[in-house]
Each structure stands twice: as structure tokens, then as C-alpha cells.
Fold this protein.
Amino acid sequence: MATELEATFDAFATASAPHLRRLARTWCRDAHRADDLVQEALERLWSAWPRVRADGNPAAYARTTLVRVLISDARRPWRRLEVVHDLLPERSAPAAASVAGDDAAETHDRMLDAVRALPPRQRAVVLLRYAEDQSVAQVAEALGCSEGTVKSQASRALGTLRARLADCRPTTTEVSR
């Protein structure tokens, strides 16, 4: 029985880890910290695995657990053992990039910076609602709040993002290309 539980958990963790890492990395923009947070979420999932497996939706439980770990970690920055003094670039600049490619990369970086500057709950709503393409009800369940809270947090976050990124919007001539 124990080996069957371990085998099912190992298979689930192996299959879902890339997706969880992508969500965590989008949240914190640090690949190593994202790996640590995914590991903590999977540890919590393991302790509840028999119940979670019986419920039949371990992916939703894993996402919810990861979001809660992310929010908890953001609330307690003093608990981290390592302090990042400077962030290295996430990707190297291409040697011969086109001007349009540079503009797109710059816009992408500005978007990520703007999302990262949002308060934790608004960031969680934006990532789950738009990056993960979940419904309002699913986001409310994952964050443990009402659907109205999800809607208001999404509205505030999108308003903030629009204000911060107003100059990044393409003009009508750029759209028609």
C-alpha cells in the first residue's frame, strides 16, 4: 500500500512540477526560489496525499497549495536564509536581435516588472485568472475568498497594470501590420 502511494505521488509530482515551477517563477522571477517554493508545496501535498488522491483532483490541490506557499513566503521575507543583493538577467541578449524583437523583449520585461510590483493577493489573482486561465470560481476557491473579492482584486490589478503600462500599448498602425 505504501509503495503504491509513493508511486502515484512520484508520477504526479514528476508530471506537475514543470507547470508548478512555471507558475512560481512567474510569481517571484527567481528560478531557484521558485524551485524551493515548489518543493515546499510538494512536501505539503505529500503529507495529505492519501486524502488528496481520494478526492480526485490533485492538480487543483497542488496549485492551491503553491499559491498559499507563495503568499506565505511573500509575507515573511525575513525568514529567508539567503538575501539576493542583485538580480542577474533571466536570459542573455541575442547577438543580432531585430529592433522589433528588442521592443518586444523590453515590453515583456516591463510587463513582468509591473505584475511583480502588484500586492501579493492582486498578483495571485492576475496569475491564476489570466496566466493560468482559471475561472473566477476556481481562483476564489484556490485563494479561499469570495468571487466578489476575486473580481475586485482583478479590477484593481488590471487598472494598476494599465496605468503603469500605458505607453506600451501598440498604436493602430502597429496593430495593422
